[in-house]
Design goal:
Blueprint: E1 4-10, H1 16-26, E2 31-38, H2 45-56, E3 64-66, H3 101-110, E4 114-117, H4 122-130, E5 140-143, H5 163-166, H6 169-178, E6 182-184, H7 186-189, E7 193-195, H8 199-203, H9 207-222, H10 225-231, E8 239-242, H11 244-252, E9 258-264, E10 266-270, E11 273-277, E12 284-291, H12 293-304
């Protein structure tokens, strides 16, 4: 059994970095991935993609539970999935019907597992509503949050680009009112990229690593990442995708390339969306403040190439 017991809560199949994070966990010998739950679902399709990835990585034994198709308040969403070019047709064994993602989350938290939330915080908020006090003291890492604007040379993205919080702002507010997660804000992750120079290494790995290479190249073309890099010299020239979610996993696994500090922070409404502010008397929270991109990528590639 690994040193780290992890529950991954994900919106996989919306962007390539969720798959990058999942493969990183599977390739880490010190990680016991106990369960996966999906959020902002579309009839269980995200869960099916997670099961496809697990099948390719030889870990079909890990249970996957689909969350509900709506947001925390029951309203609908229109967030799109990756199209069929991104995923192979792999025979998968679906989970038994009737499992509830919030109950699976509650079980993982009760067992002491670290929950790494790399999508909107809908499932965590629902689990807290169903089990008041559940999140208090829980070991949770949250990908997302606007703390400050990115440094010169990087895209000048504000809180409106903070998808994981803005997609279900009510859920995010509830989570931060009831627990103290480790925060992985967007601006510190921006220099960490899956790059064109990584594709050859990924293609020399296993089936899951090769799928990541395929998805990364598709994502780079579909989102014109070359043009984004040309306009922002702080980005790698051959960026294919931002590695938001793998950085969150690196923070959870205490990777030395991911620096964590303590700061007084509160989540408040701001111009364009929810923002973190630092004021005297605010709760002291753990937050990632920097990432050594080269060291991170070397370790990430080493782990993922095993899959």
């Amino acid at each position: 059994m690994g040193r780290y017991r992890v529950h991954l809560d994900t919106d996989i199949a919306g962007d390539a970095d969720d798959l990058c994070a999942l493969a990183m966990l599977l390739g880490s010998f010190d990680v016991d991935l106990v369960a996966i739950t999906t959020c902002i679902e579309q009839g269980g399709q995200r869960a099916d993609m997670a099961r496809t990835a697990l099948a390719l990585g030889g870990r079909a034994d890990i249970p996957v539970t689909a969350g509900r198709d709506t947001l925390f308040d029951g309203s609908a969403h229109d967030f799109q999935l990756q199209d069929s070019r991104y995923w192979p047709a792999v025979p998968i064994e679906r989970a038994l019907a009737g499992r509830d993602a919030t109950e699976v989350l509650a079980q993982s938290i009760a067992s002491g597992a670290c929950v790494i939330a790399i999508g909107p915080l809908t499932n965590l908020a629902l689990a807290e509503r169903n089990h008041p006090g559940l999140l208090r003291g829980a070991n949770i890492v949250v990908m997302g949050g606007h703390l400050e604007m990115p440094s010169a040379g990087l895209p000048h993205w504000g809180p409106d680009m903070n998808f994981n919080f803005e997609a279900d702002a009510q859920a995010a507010r509830l989570v931060f009112e009831t627990c103290d997660p480790l925060i992985v804000p967007l601006h510190v992750c921006m220099p960490v990229a899956l790059r064109g120079e990584h594709v050859e290494r990924l293609n020399s790995g296993g089936p899951l690593a090769r799928l990541i290479a395929q998805q990364a190249e598709l994502h780079g073309r579909d989102n014109d990442m070359a043009q984004l890099a040309a306009a922002h010299p702080g980005l790698p020239h051959d960026i294919l995708n931002f590695q938001w979610d793998p950085v969150a996993c690196g923070a959870a696994l205490d990777w030395p390339s991911v620096v964590v500090e303590e700061r007084p922070l509160a989540l408040v409404p701001g111009d364009g969306g929810m923002v973190f502010v630092s004021r005297t008397g605010d709760p002291v929270r753990r937050v990632v403040t920097s990432v050594d991109a080269d060291a991170f990528n070397d370790k990430w590639l080493e782990r993922v190439a095993r899959c």
